[in-house]
Design a protein that fits this description.
The complex is a heterodimer of chains A (227) and B (558).
Chain A: H1 13-44, H2 61-94, E1 101-108, E2 111-116, E3 129-132, E4 134-138, E5 143-149, E6 154-158, E7 163-167, E8 173-177, E9 183-189, E10 202-207, H3 209-226
Parallel strand pairs in A: 1-5, 4-10
Antiparallel strand pairs in A: 1-2, 2-3, 5-8, 6-7, 6-9, 9-10
Chain B: H1 8-13, H2 18-48, H3 62-98, H4 106-125, H5 148-151, H6 154-184, H7 197-228, H8 242-276, H9 283-296, H10 312-324, H11 326-339, H12 349-372, H13 374-380, H14 384-414, H15 420-446, H16 460-463, H17 466-496, H18 553-557
Helix pairs in contact in B: 2-3, 2-4, 2-17, 3-6, 3-7, 3-8, 3-14, 4-6, 6-7, 7-8, 7-9, 8-12, 8-14, 9-11, 11-12, 12-14, 12-15, 14-15, 15-17
Classes of the chains: A alpha+beta (227), B mainly alpha (558).
Chain lengths: 227, 558
């Protein structure tokens, strides 16, 4: 459902879309059933001359069934929704697969600083590549991110990954993603962070291994010239 | 009872009469709604036409945009929904519907309104201090809200917190009155299950409010200290925790949804029974589901914080409790729909509003499941999907149910009928444009559009959706213009409307047994109750309504 609007660019994007689809189907059924019943009753029992309303207390077993059976069915639907939601949640937020690479994301009013590991693949070494408002990642690699904030709350949101995580000053929050689809996409700050909140976007570049290696070489040259 | 020859000022501004206080709350709430609507106009126009000179507003800067968004939310919830739904209807209806001459603490009641008015003045004044109104979102999360260096509204932020805290004090006093009055002052013969549902629901809402507001008042005071005297409750640099505030806020914030929902549901229950000439289907189920919802609402707050950096394991527990709340709410929806079965439904203006509440609230209800389910919330959190969802709950609550209540009790309040034709025109324009505003916003949310952004020009993936934003804004402008029809109808009917008589809707509850408008003291002789509030179309009675205080046939014959 969501993939028709926003492409799926991470391994877990499809899982999240499937939970959304499941909820849409189950709640959609109840929504149309209830609205259908509602409008039918409005039509069927509209005021007509010579018709008096019935006296119904709601304790009649044959009428109460109309409440009790849906009631039980809704509990069953809830079980499916909760199970599906928790399964995805545990995979996305609670478990941390082994990382191929680790990046650091520092949020501040009103910019994103992305620290990428350089050619050595290690963070916090001399060849780290630091970019403002540009994140470069390679498809098929499992990334850990270390999310920090230097001032207020921010939120690292990447719709194509179906990823969202608040950044909190004083904490380093670790999470993961694995990109699957090359392209460039929006990164948003999704937590109100002051007057520049509306400007706090960034771009995500998901690159093939060749593109990524080329980018790393280019950055290395710029870095070498600067020294 | 007060003397009859009090002057105009004492009668309308210093009154202890619950009906006058109710109208004070109602008119203040309506005035605040106009301000909140103006803010919505300002920021929706900016979204549709970024950077343009907006008529009656001017160019909206990002700073002003944030202040408009923040205070639109704050005003509509705390200064419109709360005062009109709970304070105005609670004050007006509780004594009249339970057969009492007034609230048990009339002067506390007056003080409650005065503090509320003060809080409203402080909030509006915050727009005129240096730096302008607070713009850190209606949730006011620290550190942004705690430090003037971050939010750039050092005075506005403190005035905002002060106003909110005072407003809660006012409603605590009101709540004490509502609960005590409903417990102690019921007419002889009115047993627990003879109390009209709207009264039950306002009382349950008041209890929920009292039980949940403490942590938030504490949070507000701590925030004020952080802002003004340099404490660091929410400052990580001094060992505080910004997330603590979120817990304090949402521990109140989620029950608050039901604090305003329940009175709205109560109003709808009164109206659908009267205009379908039906007994409420399964009174006790309605009552028990409301209590169950209220209790559950204390255990769901962290679903607002799934991705806020709380322990991810906690999200699983809160997903279960949140999805569980769908059970009593769905049950309540079914029971309301079942009430229509076998009825003789008259589509008067109040009935149209009440039915619209049921149809629209259902959309708000089912879309909530997407957000309560943690796995789906990762995507939808802080998007326009959330925004559209809660407007599909809050708009039915704060606007549709309020219009239902006002059009239904207007004859009682002012002794005259409102125009049905003008009412229907106003109803259809408002309902159609409401859906026209928020259905596009669901689509934008599904597209990943995040909230509180003053212009989407900076987000290439979202900018192409501009036609949807323009459509929503157009609908909003039409909706706001349509409110003129209501205001004209309201004030013209107040002066020139057809005389209503005591009981124009042929309803059962006690407020319809007294003159319209009721005199100070309400009842000439206090009524005695013989039956429940919803004995419509009873087989043992000739007429299709049977007032609660009408003596049984055997007794009146003797």
């Amino acid at each position: 459902m969501i993939e028709q609007y926003v492409v799926q660019a991470s391994t877990y994007a499809a899982d999240i879309d499937n939970v959304i689809l499941l909820i849409a189907v189950l709640t959609g059924f109840w929504f149309f059933a209830a609205q259908g019943m509602f409008f039918w009753l409005l039509f069927r029992f509209r005021e007509r001359p010579g018709h008096k309303a019935e006296y119904v207390t709601g304790d009649e077993p044959d009428l109460k069934r109309w409440i009790n059976i849906p009631h039980i069915l809704i509990i069953i639907c809830d079980v499916f929704i909760v199970a599906a939601a928790i399964m995805v949640w545990v995979n996305v937020k609670q478990t941390l697969p082994e990382a191929d690479r680790t990046i650091r994301i520092v949020a501040q009013q009103w910019a994103w600083t992305f620290v990428h590991p350089g050619p050595d693949g290690q963070l916090d070494t001399d060849d780290d590549i630091t970019m403002i408002d540009e994140l470069h990642v390679e498809v098929g690699q499992v990334y850990h991110y270390q999310l920090e904030s230097t001032d207020v709350l921010h939120d690292f949101s990447v719709p194509v990954f179906r990823l969202k995580q608040d950044a909190i000053p004083g904490r380093r929050i670790v999470g993961w993603f694995e990109p699957t689809l090359p392209g460039h996409y929006d990164i948003q700050c999704a937590e109100m962070c002051g007057i520049g909140h509306g400007l706090m976007g960034a771009r995500l570049f998901v690159e093939t291994p060749e593109q990524h290696a080329q980018w790393m070489r280019d950055r290395g040259e710029i870095l070498a010239r600067a020294h | 009872m007060a003397s009859q020859n009090e002057n105009f000022f004492l009668k309308y501004f210093w009154s202890t009469d619950h009906k006058i206080i109710a109208l004070q709350y109602m008119f203040t709430g309506m005035a605040m709604a106009l301000i909140g609507g103006y803010f919505a106009y300002a920021f929706r126009m900016q979204l549709a036409f970024p950077g343009a000179e907006i008529p009656l507003v001017g160019v909206v800067t990002p700073h002003e945009y944030n202040a408009f968004v923040t205070n639109h939310g704050t005003i509509m919830i705390f200064w419109v929904a709360m005062p009109v739904l709970i304070a105005a209807f609670g004050n007006y209806l509780i004594p009249l519907m339970i057969g009492a001459d007034d609230m048990v603490f009339p002067r506390l009641n007056r003080l409650s309104y005065q503090i509320f008015l003060l809080s409203a003045i402080i909030l509006v004044a915050s727009f005129f201090v240096p730096g302008g109104g607070f713009g850190g979102a209606w949730t006011a999360y620290p550190p942004l809200s705690a430090d003037g260096a971050y939010n750039l509204t050092p005075l506005g932020a403190s005035m905002w917190v002060t106003a909110v805290a005072l407003e809660f004090v006012a409603f605590l006093m009101g709540g004490i009155n509502f609960i005590t009055t409903a417990m102690n002052s019921r007419a002889p013969g009115m047993k627990a299950f003879d109390v009209p549902i709207v009264i039950w629901f306002i009382v349950i809402a008041s209890i929920l409010f009292m039980a949940s507001v403490g942590p938030l008042i504490a949070g507000a005071i701590m925030l004020l200290f952080d802002q003004q005297i340099g404490t660091g409750y929410f400052d990580a640099r001094t060992g505080g925790d910004p997330v603590l505030y979120q817990h304090l806020f949402w521990f109140f914030g989620h029950p608050e949804v039901y604090v305003v929902l329940l009175p709205a549901l109560g109003i709808v229950a009164e109206i659908i029974t009267v205009f379908s000439r039906k007994k409420l289907f399964a009174y006790k189920i309605v009552l028990y589901t409301a209590i169950a919802t209220g209790v559950l609402s204390f255990f769901v707050w962290a679903h607002h914080q799934f991705i806020a950096g709380i322990d991810p394991r906690m999200a699983n527990i809160f997903t279960v409790t949140t999805v569980l709340i769908s059970i009593p709410i769905a049950e309540m929806c079914f029971v309301y729909i079942a009430t229509l079965y076998g009825g003789s439904i008259r589509f008067t203006v109040p009935m149209l509003w009440a039915l619209a509440f049921m149809a629209e609230f259902l959309i708000g209800g089912v879309t909530g499941i997407f957000l309560g389910a943690s796995g789906a919330d990762i995507y939808f959190h802080d998007t326009y999907f959330v925004l559209a969802h809660f407007h599909y709950t809050f708009f039915p609550i704060a606007i549709i149910a309020v219009f239902a209540g006002i059009t239904y009790w207007f004859p009682k309040m002012f002794g005259r009928m409102m125009s049905e034709t003008a009412g229907k025109v106003h109803f259809w324009i408002t309902i159609l444009t409401f859906n026209g505003i928020f259905i596009p916003l669901f689509v934008l949310g599904a597209w990943g559009q995040h909230r509180r952004i003053y212009s989407y020009e900076h987000f290439p993936d979202l900018w192409e959706l501009q036609p949807l934003r323009i459509f929503a804004t157009t609908c909003l402008v039409i909706m706001l213009l349509a409110q003129v029809i209501f205001l004209v109808n309201f004030f013209v009917s107040m002066l020139r409307g057809k005389k209503a008589g005591n009981n124009p809707w042929r309803a059962n509850t006690l407020e319809w047994t007294v003159p319209s408008p009721p005199p100070h003291g309400n009842f000439e002789t206090l009524p005695v109750v013989h039956r429940g509030p919803y004995e419509y179309s009873h087989p043992d009675h000739d007429e299709d309504f049977w007032p609660q205080d009408a003596a049984p046939a055997a007794e009146s014959a003797s």
